[in-house]
Amino acid sequence: MKSKILNLLSKPHVTFRYRLIITAMIKFYALIVLLFIIFTFPCIAQSKKGRVEGYIKSTDGSPINAATISLLRAKDSALAKAVIADKTGNFEIENVADGNYLVKITAVGYSPYLSNPFIISDANYNVSLSTLTVRKSDKQLENVQVTVKRPLIENRIDKLVLNVEAAISNAGSTAMDVLEKSPGVSVDRDGNITLKGKQGVIILMDGKPTYLSVADLTTLLRNTPANQLDQIEIMTQPSAKYDASGNSGIINIKTKKNQQSGFNGSISLSYVQGVYPKTNNSFTINSRKGKVNLFANAGVSYNEGFSKFYLTRNFHDKNTAALTSVFDQETSFSNISKSGTFKGGIDFFASKKTTFGIVANTNNITGHGTGVGSANIYNGTGILTSVNVAESRSNFDWASYSGNFNFRHLIDTAGTEITADFDLIKYSKTNPSDNDNYTYDSHNNLIGYPYLLRGELPSDITISTGKIDYVHPLKNKMKLEAGVKASWVETVNDAQYNYYDFPSASLKIDGRTNNFEYSENITAVYVNTSRQMKKWSLQLGLRLENTIAQGKQLVNNQTFEKKYIQLFPTAYFSHTPNKKNTYVLSYGRRIDRPNYQDMNPFQYFLDQYTYKEGNPFLTPQFTHNIEISQNYKGILNSAVNYTRTTDLISDVFVQNDSARTTVYTKQNIATRRNIGLSMNYNKALNKIWNLTFSANVYNNYFNGIINKAHLSLDYTTFQVNATNQFKFNKGWSAEMSGLYNYKTLQSISITQPNGMINLGAAKQIWKNKATLRLTVRDLFYTMYYNSYTKFDNMDMKTKIKWDNRQAALSFTYRFGKNTNAVPQRKRTSASQEEQNRVGTGN
User: Fold this and answer.
1) pLDDT of 682 over the 90 cut
2) Least confident of 11-15, 198-202, 272-276, 438-442
3) Concatenated DSSP letters for 629-691?
4) What is the CATH number of domain 153-837?
5) Would 410 disulfide with which of 7, 353, 614, 785, CB 3.0-4.6 Å?
6) Alpha-carbon dihedral of residues 382, 322, 390, 751, nearest 10 degrees?
7) What distance, in Å, lies between the first and last C-alpha atoms of the chain?
8) 684, 694, 799, 803: which is closest to 739 by C-alpha?
9) pLDDT: which is higher, 247 or 313
10) What's the Cα-to-Cα distance from 448 to each of 226, 388, 437, 451, rounded to whole Å?
11) Any idea what DSSP says for residue 165?
């Protein structure tokens, strides 16, 4: 690798600027290796320190979560160390000096437990206590109200965590609505998601890729009730353990799953009124007894909405730049969709070290929509020459089915473990549609025959994946992680277009009829090594991915094949000079492969002059990302990043002046440089008021070629997002939130500012077992899309509005009991350590 770089440096066509960049990268990797040697070498000569580990359970066999384990000196019962048991009942105490000790266990609802004495010495430095059974206390705590409130946002070193239910305004909304309000996240008119101004975000559902196109992912998120979500994790710099996909990072959407002992669950009902009615409803249920945990959640929703699309296109003479014609289009769409989701599974705790799990998931979305649009066509002097009227009708049936088998085994008491996941996923979509076009002259007389198009657009995707991960803790707070993964993807798309031929009074096959098949195999291996010191930590990772992709259009027998192997290094340096501050420097290289449907060459029509088309010749884009962040007391996280992406995949409008058509597609257009500064703040300002605030300022610079025209554009913009939460007496709470997006450069288009204000109120009822919420979203109806494009021969304006102003009333009821008897203390503000003790499981 190094020799190749040195050969590259010697070539005359490599500019001085890039020689500096490459030389700096060599020095950077050399520094990483040197620091790793420095940090690792002292471990060899360290003397042995004692270690005590054990497992705590109740008399009914269930583990006791968050019990306090105190290590006491045997001679005087003086406290030496104290730790908290994890959610599985396991604990470990490290760096114990030689001596005689005993262990004391305390937990709310249980009688204190005292172990027999034991000795820590050079000959017996690793003590493994037998299973410790703790009895429930005969004295029951009565009339004790336990309240656990997670903050809206948790600032962690490696990620930002959004707790969905902590925001009142999320009641009655969808997963897409929650994402739209998340710090640093933007969603454009087509559902494309960007993070800190950068495209190429990978969306995971419960840690697994969705493998969906933008359109299908948008459909799924807009039909997933927010009350089925637990957390949203935003990772701008994932480690080598994660897939290298996603230039700007990973957003992991975690759905609800409970592992508390006993029988418990919740039900959520909501009614939403915009211009049209909507409803999102769900329930979760969990039953854990002994070694078996059963869980399920399901949801049903109904969504009726509309959108209005305005497009003005100006066509100019290439030589004189004189205006030759104007297309002024307006289209109104109405749609109705119904969805049903179900997720269920079982965890079997074969022993305190081995767990098996099976999860099944299904989603089904059906709906239909109609659209009516007109395009007034003017000549260069503003005289109306013709009118095109387009009427569309479509039905939609989208379904997914998935199964997962997972396995976890603790190999030894030091924490060495192996985990495995195997998934089979099936997506199926049918989308029959009609598109009728009529052209009239300025006197409303029909010109020629109508253009009547009938389409059947079925699509099937099958994904098989398997991965194995291994974690091996080493001495002196070192850890080694390694793993392998393989995935196989097959997509089959069959576009059957027919048009009505009036002379023959029959349907004929349209030239757009096509069949596209695509298969992809990715195999990957990775290794991570890390070391924790008193104030410093280091993590180095390397991931290797081998990709084999094949595509074929059956109509013209056109095929392509892509094979490439890529390395993706990651590095993290963390420094904690005191209890208040943590600084992190990180680097990562990532890849973003084209979505399967983005390579599908089929055409999707708005009308006969405007349509969308895939590009089967897209190539991956690659990114180098450097980020420096600071976390202050767990309440303030600030970061500055530098990102450079090559072969950028971006949305492009291709205009044919002679045919006066506009095609919306994707191309590898440019190199993008992104420089950004972000800040997230979350703090209880007093007993009543909690403020969450985030801001992101960034500059995007594009340099490349679009439609044979040189592109050199840069733009600086910003986003702000604030949530004010108020807690009052007698179970009342309220929320006021808002977001604002300044002008943004998206490829060759400038989007105008937009934003929204949300209000909400909530009341705890029925002894805090139920919650009523009333929310208003986008109070002033200011969240809509508005953009203009002036580049090469493109001169157009776009505006899109949809049913975004909504009022929602929701009801949530929690039932059942938790027999773990591990209540947490009541609090309204969070420290990171306490929050890590509270969770709903994964």
Assistant:
1) no
2) 11-15
3) EEEETTTEEEEEEEEEEEEEEEEEEEEETTTTEEEEEEEEEEEEEEEEEEEEEEEE-SSSEEE
4) 2.40.170.20
5) 353
6) -110
7) 40
8) 694
9) 313
10) 50, 12, 11, 9
11) G
Q: What secondary structure letter does DSSP report for 43?
A: G
Question: What is the DSSP code string of 775-810?
Answer: EEESTT----EEEEEEETTEEEEEEEEES--EEEEE
With contact defined as beta carbons under 8 Å apart, do 429 and 397 qualify? yes
Q: For position 798, what pLDDT does the model report?
A: 93
CA 834 to each of CA 64, 149, 465, 829: distance values in angstroms, whole numbers, following the listed order: 17, 11, 36, 10
- pLDDT computed for residue 211 by the predictor: 67
Tally Cβ neighbours within 10 Å of residue 118.
14
Using the predicted structure, report yes or no on whether residue 354 has a pLDDT greater than 70.
yes
Q: What is the pLDDT of residues 478-505, one digit of tens each?
A: 889 999 999 999 999 888 888 888 888 8
Is there a contact between 664 and 787 (Cβ–Cβ < 8 Å)?
Answer: no
Q: What one-character DSSP code corresponds to residue 108?
A: T
Nearest-angstrom CA–CA distance, 823 and 108: 7
DSSP class of residue 392?
A: E
Looking up tokens 């002994």, which residue turns up?
A: 290
- For the record, the structure tokens of 641 come out as 């990043």
- What is the structure's pLDDT at 363? 92
From 547, 632, 527, 536, select the one nearest 592 (Cα to Cα): 547
Buried b (16+ CB within 10 A) or exposed e, 40-61: eeeeeeeeeebbbbbbbbbeee
Are 789 and 795 in contact, with CB atoms under 8 Å apart? yes
Q: How far is CA 489 from CA 381, 406, 547, 554, 599, in A?
A: 53, 20, 11, 19, 14
Mean of pLDDT values over 702-720: 89
Distance, CA of 651 to CA of 192 (rounded, Å): 10
CA distance 611 to 423: 36
pLDDT at 15: 44
Q: Residue 820 and residue 288: Cα distance in Å, rounded?
A: 10
Backbone angles phi, psi at 219, to 5 degrees: -60, -45
Q: Is 550 in contact with 519 (CB distance < 8 Å)?
A: yes
**Helix, strand, coil percent values for the chain (each to nearest 5):** 10, 60, 30
pLDDT bucket at 826, cuts 50 / 70 / 90: very low
Instruction: Give the containing element (helix H, strand E) for 440.
Output: strand 433-441
Q: SS3 for 138?
A: coil
**Could you tell me how many helices (H) and strands (E) the chain has, helices first?**
5, 48
| pLDDT score recorded for residue 621 | 92
Contact 698, 710 (CB under 8 A): no
How far is residue 13's CA from residue 15's CA, in Å, rounded to a whole number? 6
Q: Bridge-partner residues for 15, per DSSP?
A: none
Output the pLDDT for position 805: 95
3-state class of 241 per DSSP?
coil
DSSP for residue 825: P
How far CA 739 is from CA of 417, 719, 779, in Å, comes to: 43, 7, 12
Helix (H, G, I), strand (E, B) or coil at 240: coil
Q: Which two tokens stand for residue 826?
A: 């009541």
* Domain parsing of the chain, residue ranges: 2-42, 69-134, 153-837
pLDDT band, residue 138 (cuts 50/70/90): low
Measured distance CA(815)–CA(89) in Å, rounded = 25
Pick the more confident residue, 821 or 414: 414
For 358-361, the CB contacts below 8 A with 24+ separation are 358/403, 358/404, 358/405, 358/406, 359/403, 359/404, 359/406, 360/402, 360/403, 360/404, 361/400, 361/401, 361/402, 361/403, 361/404
3-state SS assignment for residue 227: helix
pTM score = 0.75
